[in-house]
Structures are given as C-alpha cells and as structure tokens.
Amino acid sequence: MSRDLTGKTLGGYRFGEVLARGAQSTVYEAHQGESDSPVAIKVFLTELPKDKASSIVTEVQRATARTHKNLVPVLEVGSLEWKGKKHLFVVMQRLFGESLRSRLASQPGHALPLHVALQVAGAIGGALQAIHGTGAVHRGVNTGAVFICPPTDEERAQDIEAEDRVYLLDLGASAFQEGLSGTGGGGSSGRRARQDDIRSLAALLSEMLGGVPATVAQGSEALLPLRYRNRKIPARLDAVLRLVLSDKLSPDKQEPFSSVAELMAALLGDAQSIPTHAAWSSDGREEAPKTRGRSGLLWAALLSVVGGASFGVGYWLYQDPGSSQPAPAVSSPGSSASVADMAHSDAAHSDHSEVK
After folding, report:
1. CA 242 to CA 263: how far, in whole Å?
2. What pLDDT is attached to residue 245?
3. Residues in contact with 229: Cβ distance below 8 Å, sequence separation at least 6, in sequence order
4. Beta bridge partners of 78
5. Which helix (H) or strand (E) covers residue 177, if one does?
C-alpha cells in the first residue's frame, strides 16, 4: 500500500492524520461511523494473500483478544480493500501521550531514574506475561512500542497523585508475520520466541538506565556494566541484566530465566518469591510459579564476580537517588503499592512474600 489513506472512508472508519509510520505499517487517527469516536488504526502495508486472508485475520484477532491494564485495548481486527488489494487493520484505543523513546530522548543522559525504570519494566513485564499465558508472543518489545500517557486534567482533579499509565503497543504484528510465512509459535520455536521477549525486556530496562543498545558490530563481549555509567545502579541488578543479555547460557545449558516472571523476581531482589500484584494476574492474588532451585547458587556466583558477595547482599536495590532530579511518576504495576514500596517492605522484612 503506497498511497496515504488520510481523508478516505474505509471499513466504516474515516481516516485522519498519520500518527506514525513504520517499515511494515502506518498508524492513523480515525473516527468511527456515526459515533465519531476517535480511535487509532494500524494498517499493515503488506497485502493479505487471498488464500490466507481469513485465517490471518482470525489469528490476529486471537492474538489481540487478551485484555490487560498495560496492553493497549484493541477494539477491532479486520481487513479493508484498497485498489483491489486487501490489507489487515487493527483498531486500537486512541492514546494521548508519548512513546518511551521520546521520553528517553528528553531526559538528562537519555536515562530514567532507577525506580521509574523498574516501574515501567514491571508494567511491560506484566503485559508480556499475560501475552505468554495465552500461548502468544510479542517479538517487538522496544522503546518505540511502549507508550506513556500522563494523567488527564480530570484525573488530576480527582487524585492529585495520579500517575502516568504505561502501555505495550504493536499487538498482533507477530501473528500477522507468522500467518504470512506459515510458521506457528508452538514447540521449541515458541520457547525461543518467549526467550526473545525476555531478552528484549532486559534490553529495554538496560536502555532506560542509560545502557547502549547492543549491535552486531559490538559483539557479545561488548556489554559493559551499567554501573560504569551510573554508580547508583546496584551491582546485583547489573549482573542480572548482563546475564540475560550475554550470549552465554547457564552452566547447565539452560536459559537463565524460563519466564518473564522469573526475570522480574530477580530484578526486584528476590529470586525465590515472585511478586504477585494486579499487573501480573487477573485478580491480583494468583501466585506465580517459583524459580528453579539453582537460582540461589547462581546469584551467589554473580555477586562474587561483580562486587563481592558481602557488598552485593548489603547493597539494597532501592536507595536514595540523592541529588538526581526525579522523573515524572509512572503508573505502578501494582494495584495500589508501587514496585519501590514493595522493595522497601521486603528489605525490612526479608521473610515477607512479595505481593507482578
């Protein structure tokens, strides 16, 4: 699809201005029929094969059906015809705010404070865990696929401490590509895809903390510790990210974390107790699976290598940011308590189970 759809009426929607352009799709602002409700419509540029159109639309509908507080709401999935060719479209709730990429570009050092970065990672991690729970994958987690919405004036009037909301975008893109290629997400291929999502989440957090995105030219050995750039980043957290982002597997040839939940548990400071809050389960009470028993030895080894076990154990994950300026508040993945609050509680009560 080469022509701009601005001003056209297709599929019951009046297309307005272009909100974003990508290599595979274009996102438009649009209005729906008589209701005139504003929405955002992503139109995929690749033509739908006639023999696969129906099945691809069905698969994308299934992949975008999962609802979650940190997933952008998908209102409709369908196909539209333009100049004799069919194209997939995904209708989403119209969001007002900025991408994480834009937010980082405006921050000093292109980085967020530790507690804010962990809150964003927790929200996106919860969304990924929900996607994986349906047997689907995302395959596109990056700073451009994360959207931050500040509170509206009405929300601020009702709650002066109202926080930003974090959403994961680009739902259905993976299912669309799999439909075109005829590949599925099951079996070992599905496990590899989930590991790619886990790695992408770690890379996202690393970039939020000022890390440089890895490139092929850098190679697997070019991953410098984040603490070289920012001494306020705990050695243990740095070690966890380096473990995930390195190309080396654990001694028993397994990936270091089998789920997003395990990764977040390690990042939050307790590899034996995975947080269970509203961003990670439908009712906020469901208990997530425990990590493998070898985790304790793994953390001990990492702490010894990075900074010494005694230093790592005494170096709490959350500490006073000092003179650094706080960033705008970001919505907590929990129902009421923030990730930082939970970490402080855990530091004071080591035997208290964490409340994703």
Report:
1. 12
2. 87
3. 109, 111, 210, 211
4. 89
5. helix 173-181
The answer as to CATH 3.30.200.20 being correct for domain 9-93 is yes
Rounded CA-CA distance 93/30 in Å is: 10
Which of 144-158, 179-193, 229-243, 329-343 is predicted most confidently?
A: 144-158
Q: How far apart (Å, rounded) are the C-alpha atoms in residues 65 and 105?
A: 32
Residues 247-259 pLDDT 10s: 665 555 578 899 9
State which of 105-114, 207-216, 271-280, 326-335 shows the largest mean pLDDT.
Answer: 105-114
Q: Is the pLDDT of residue 165 over 70?
A: yes
Q: What amino acid occupies position 333?
A: P
Token pair of 151 as six digits: 């509170």
Listed range (163-172, 181-190, 215-224) with the worst mean pLDDT: 215-224
Residue 272 carries which side chain, given as an amino acid letter?
Answer: Q
Say how far apart CA 209 and CA 303 lie, in whole Å: 20
What is the tens place of the pLDDT at every residue in 319-331?
333 434 444 444 4
Superfamily designation of domain 98-348: Transferase(Phosphotransferase) domain 1 (1.10.510.10)
CA end-to-end distance (rounded Å), the chain: 40
CATH 3.30.200.20 placement within the chain:
9-93
- Asked if 104 and 184 touch (Cβ cutoff 8 Å), the reply is no
Q: What SS3 class is residue 103?
A: helix
Burial track 267-286 (b if 16+ CB lie within 10 A, e otherwise): bbbbbebbbbbbbbbeeeee
Side chain identity at 213, as an amino acid letter? Answer: P
The torsion angle over the Cα atoms of residues 170, 211, 316 and 319, rounded to 10 degrees, is -90
**For the residues 176-186, what does the mean pLDDT come to?**
76
How far apart are alpha carbons 90 and 140 in whole angstroms? 16
Residue 215, token pair as written in the block: 């490139």
